[in-house]
Amino acid sequence: MFSCVTQEGKMSWTVADAVDYKGFPADRSKTGGWVPAALILGIEVCERLSTMGIAVNLVTYLVGTMHLASATSANIVTDFMGTSFLLCLLGGFLADSFLGRYKTIAIFATIQTLGTGMLATVTKLPQLRPRPCHASATNTCEQASRFQMGILYVALYLIALGTGGLKSSVSGFGTDQFDEKDEKEKAHMAYFFNRFVFFISIGTLMAVTVLVYIQDEVGRSWGYGICSVTMSVAILIFLSGTKRYRYKKSSGSPIVHIFQVIVAAIRKRKIDLPYNLSMLYEDTPEVSRIYHTDQFRLLDKAAIATEGDFENGSSPNPWKLCSVTRVEEVKMMARLLPIWATTIIFWTTYAQMITFSVEQATTMERSIGNFQIPAGSLTVFFVVAIMITLAVYDRFTNLQRMAVGLVLSTMGMAAAALAESKRLSVARAVGRDTATLPISVFLLIPQFFLVGAGEAFIYTGQLDFFITKSPKGMKTMSTGLFLTTLSLGFFVSSFLVSVVKKVTATNGKHGWLADNINYGRLDYFYGLLAILSFINLGIYLICAVWYKPKNPKADVKMETFVNGSSADETC
User: Fold this and answer.
1) What total number of domains does the chain contain?
2) C-alpha separations of 7 from 3, 4, 10 in Å
3) What confidence tens digit (pLDDT) does each residue in 412-441 have?
4) What is the pLDDT, as a whole number, of residue 561?
């Protein structure tokens, strides 16, 4: 391997912070670029095809085949999706601390493939589902047994584990194929992010159209089997690029670094900060330093040097003493939290699009001539809205995008409440036990379209915000933080469903979320979500105004304690 860096204006043939599969400095001409990035992008497309192909149509299987109650089915779906995104933190931790992104993707993609294969088997065997029947006001179908549900849960949560580990590393490993220090490759990296969102939307579109149709018209096991085979092929394609990839060396887990600062600050909570902040400890090279800010002053105590902090000669114990830069990295992450918290509610409204909205569609007229639209395929309008919106989203800043997304989701829930009110009036008029109500399923388009457009704004806004506003060494951590908003949004949905069902279903009443939605008041539930979303929007706007990145002033000088001595630096 050779390098030709030396003269100014000449480009190096090696990438400074990357290695090839043998551990040598990565040759720019033989590694990285669009071909390896495309191989990585392919595995994400197949992951989205599998996950969304399962999620958007799972509620119909739980209600129609497993004979579970409407609210119970919705919670199973949202818990499954919530766990998938929550496990991104586990995948990110393993990638940063032990496995690296390449191995993490390969291992967890294999786990997801096994899960989808198991799900195909579970839905094929008649012993693993209750006997078919037709439910009515006077006839209650036999629900799936604990054993049958247990086997189903094993398959679903294998998929969740695979999805979580996979998603935590795909976008990061894709950007690893481009060198940020090279202007041309840096431009390609930005383009990669745009294509990343576009292609996962393509995967979702295929899932909610072709895959859902196969599940409904050919068989569930065929649909899930296709997911398993597709992922298997994607893994082989991914592995074929092993020699072409660039690999970045991990600097350790950001989660551990955050806890080190917190623990060190707690240990020194009773120590007063020095009057001269130049006495705070700093050992980071000047080009990589983050200068001191006045927010979250309690954390500054982690940078107070005391006797006993240097246990191994000149190196401090990181659980007792942290540099100013390390403390400021934690502060930067802390400043993201208000925005993080106020975007969770969007994903709670999103959860309704793959649960109750799909169940609404099953009760409505879905025929176009001789063709009947699968209920789960209504989400095609959701995906179309996303793809249309991607053409204009870059005209907004990341905070503006998130605000627009929250506005659209609030409008979407209001539209959903009005549509459900109309559907229920038809159900009362023709009989609540009518299998297909004489009302077009296209009445649901506004709610799908508004929330779908909202997702395009908020997803890209969150991704850009959490990556660009986080410390360089915590990009994977910040991506995981972003994905936990999806996770918590689904869990909040499950919580709200459980609370609303318990509170409203009293004294023998069906409540808002009845087992048969024709007997409930789902419109009230949607109205509640619209109100909560509106309140959350107001809180978000306050947090967005509060969030003002504080850039260090170049003309202010301070002395910083470096390994026990002072050095000049710009603050």
Assistant:
1) 2
2) 12, 8, 6
3) 999 999 999 999 999 999 988 888 889 998
4) 36
From start to end of 297-418, where are the E strands?
364-365, 367-368, 371-372
**Nearby residues of 109 by Cβ (< 8 Å), 6 or more positions away:** 43, 47, 162, 166, 231, 234, 235, 238
Distance of alpha carbon 92 from alpha carbon 559, whole angstroms: 36
The number of beta carbons lying within 10 Å of the beta carbon of residue 524 is 17
Long-range pairs of 545-552 with CB within 8 A, sequence gap ≥ 24: 546/338, 547/335, 547/338, 547/339, 547/399, 549/469, 550/293, 550/295, 552/291, 552/293
C-alpha 391: how far from chain center: 21
For residue 282, give the nearest of 3, 20, 561, 567 by alpha carbon: 561
Clarify whether residues 199 and 321 are in a common domain: no
In this structure, what are the phi and psi dihedrals at residue 505, rounded to the nearest 5 degrees? -95, 75
Could you tell me if 537 and 406 are in contact, meaning their C-beta atoms sit under 8 angstroms apart? yes
Contact 228, 117 (CB under 8 A): yes
Question: What is the spatial distance between Cα 375 and Cα 369, in angstroms, rounded to a whole number?
Answer: 16
CB proximity list for 266: less than 8 A, separation 6 or greater: none
**Each residue of 183-208: pLDDT tens digit?**
787 777 777 766 777 778 788 888 88
Per-residue HEC secondary structure of 239-275 comes to HHCHHHCCEECCCCCHHHHHHHHHHHHHHCCCCCCCC
Structural domain for 318, as ranges: 254-333+555-570
User: Of 183, 216, 250, which residue sits at a domain end?
Assistant: 250
Residue 252 has pLDDT above 70, yes or no: no
Q: Is 219 exposed, middle or buried (0-12, 13-18, 19+ CB in 10 A)?
A: middle
Which DSSP helix (H) or strand (E) runs through 557? Answer: strand 557-562
On the CB side of 489, CA atoms within 13 Å amount to 28
Query: Pairing state of beta strands 437-440 and 364-365?
Result: parallel
